[in-house]
Amino acid sequence: MNIKGSIALVTGANRGLGRALVSALLDGGAAKVYAAARDEKTLAVRDSRVVPLTLDTTKPEQIVAAVKKASDVTLLINNAGVSTSYKVLTMTPAELAADFRTNVQGTLDVIKAFVPMLERGRTGGTIVNVLSLSSLVSVPTFGGYAASKAAAYSITQALRPALRPKHIDVLAVLAGPIDTDMIKDFPLPKTSAADVAKGVLAGIARGDEEIFPDPMAEQMGALWSKSPKELERAFSSF
Ligand SMILES: NC(=O)c1ccc[n+]([C@@H]2O[C@H](COP(=O)([O-])OP(=O)(O)OC[C@H]3O[C@@H](n4cnc5c(N)ncnc54)[C@H](OP(=O)(O)O)[C@@H]3O)[C@@H](O)[C@H]2O)c1
User: Is 229 a known active-site residue?
Assistant: First the structure.
């Protein structure tokens, strides 16, 4: 889809990748960007095309209100996410449930609420789910988070044929490590949020169903296409 002239909504737009996506959308010529955050006061990008929106993706009443306010969206970017559960053997049930609540259920609830509106648009729409390489491969250190991102990828795949007849495309962003708060304590090679955002928008413009927006994601994505088993072996040392 064309970013120029699009009307986008980004969840979790106040920091990290979400904030970078808002800036990249404005640079790419988006007509309007709904910047959604749990707390509107934390939104930092100021531009006449930015419309602040309060949205906690785990709060059904806020989702309903967001659909009413953002009734002209053509590009929905589900970026909001958490990483609460870490080690597969020691995480608690509550930590795992928290990751599933936001990363899977919250994302799906937002999509379901926006589908009738996207469907009414004459040219259809695009839904982009910000997932992770850990949707494709897991490691002991973030086994819980990875399980939630794998489930979100599974939902993404299920939505594609369900929404194709409604002219709605569903794209998955399978990002590598990004330099944001989420993994600030992990000493990994990381790509800046600004560069990842550019990669995401380039993938949306091409209409890639799987977007690998950074160099590590591109490399690991190529390995996954060749052999998921080889990708699993490559990750086993993390
Ligand atoms: N960082 C990485 O290495 C990496 C790699 C691959 C994919 N990702 C994915 O990229 C996305 C953005 O993550 P990030 O790296 O930018 O992390 P981040 O800096 O921790 O930011 C997370 C964002 O999500 C918002 N959020 C969390 N729960 C929410 C909820 N229930 N409702 C609405 N907003 C919520 C946060 O809002 P508050 O400020 O209110 O907490 C914040 O804006 C996530 O989906 C993450 O899984 C990250």
Answer: no
